[in-house]
């Protein structure tokens, strides 16, 4: 008499056993599909944002003491409208170019800081870098400095604030502690900034407020070109270092698993 057949499930792979080539191939194909989908979604979002940016740029070029319609703006850009050409390309377009370059630089700085700190709340203003730069710049204006000296002082202030946050956080630039310490340093910098403004003369305080707010009213093509050149160089360096930067966004265990140093 034959023994009854016993239904069995799929064979179990012992824990710790190496995966077969077929399993590894399936995982690789799945990851490739996910990455391809992510790239398509990212490309779609970027394309949509660029279209919105182009529309807003045309509207911005039409605003001013002499309002221009979108058709006049396009005519000035293409050279078919001589009356609008000077207003658009000679006055407003350099301002727009400088504003876009500075905005891109600020966005890039925030994205890099969030990647390094691995915290979406981190930004230069939250962790005290902006406050340190502002306080140092206003102190420099109060001391009678102008021009590039004020910018250099602001750079030193930002680096000093970053060093202070790094030293007080105690455990590097990861985790919530770094952000909390950065918020404390930001408040400290705001206190120094307020004190410097109260001690400044009326002329110095006016100059300091104008410097803090900033303006692109007198921007020329040379200003936009300098900022764009620096921004382009930074983007090239970051593109070459994209793999280490992507590893910074991983948690420590995942970074070790892929062979990166956390």
TrEMBL record:
Mind telling me which GO cellular component terms the entry cites?
Answer: plasma membrane
**SUPFAM superfamilies tied to this protein:** ABC transporter involved in vitamin B12 uptake, BtuC (SSF81345)
Q: Where is this region: Disordered?
A: 1-20
Q: According to its record, how does it sit in the membrane?
A: Multi-pass membrane protein
Q: Where are the transmembrane segments?
A: 42-66, 96-117, 137-166, 178-197, 209-240
Pfam families under this entry?
Answer: FecCD
Domain of life of the source: Bacteria
Record-linked PANTHER family: ABC TRANSPORTER PERMEASE PROTEIN MJ0876-RELATED, FERRIC ENTEROBACTIN TRANSPORT SYSTEM PERMEASE PROTEIN
Family membership, please give it. Belongs to the binding-protein-dependent transport system permease family. FecCD subfamily.
Q: What is this protein called?
A: Membrane protein
Which species is the source of this protein?
A: Actinotalea ferrariae CF5-4
């Amino acid at each position: 008499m034959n023994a009854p057949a016993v239904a069995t499930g799929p064979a179990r792979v012992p824990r710790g056993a190496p995966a077969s080539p077929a399993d590894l191939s399936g995982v690789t194909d799945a990851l490739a599909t996910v990455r391809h989908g992510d790239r398509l979604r990212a490309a779609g979002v970027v394309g949509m944002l660029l279209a919105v940016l182009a529309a807003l740029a045309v509207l911005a070029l039409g605003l001013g003491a002499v309002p221009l319609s979108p058709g006049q703006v396009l005519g000035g850009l293409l050279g078919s409208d001589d009356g609008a050409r000077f207003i658009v390309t000679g006055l407003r377009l350099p301002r727009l170019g400088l504003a876009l370059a500075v905005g891109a630089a600020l966005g890039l700085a925030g994205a890099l800081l969030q990647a390094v700190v691995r915290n979406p709340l981190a930004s230069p203003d939250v962790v005290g870098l902006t406050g340190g730069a502002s306080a140092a710049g206003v102190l420099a204006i109060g001391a009678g400095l102008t021009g590039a000296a004020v910018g250099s002082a602001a750079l030193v202030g930002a680096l000093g604030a970053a060093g202070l946050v790094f030293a007080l956080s105690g455990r590097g630039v990861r985790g919530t502690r770094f952000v909390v310490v950065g918020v404390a340093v930001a408040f400290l910098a705001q206190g120094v900034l307020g004190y410097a403004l109260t001690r400044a003369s009326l002329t110095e305080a006016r100059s300091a407020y104008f410097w803090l707010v900033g303006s692109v009213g007198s921007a020329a093509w040379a200003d936009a070109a300098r900022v764009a050149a620096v921004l382009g160089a930074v983007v090239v360096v970051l593109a070459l270092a994209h793999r280490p930067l992507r590893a910074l966004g991983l948690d420590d265990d995942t970074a070790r698993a892929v062979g990166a140093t956390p």
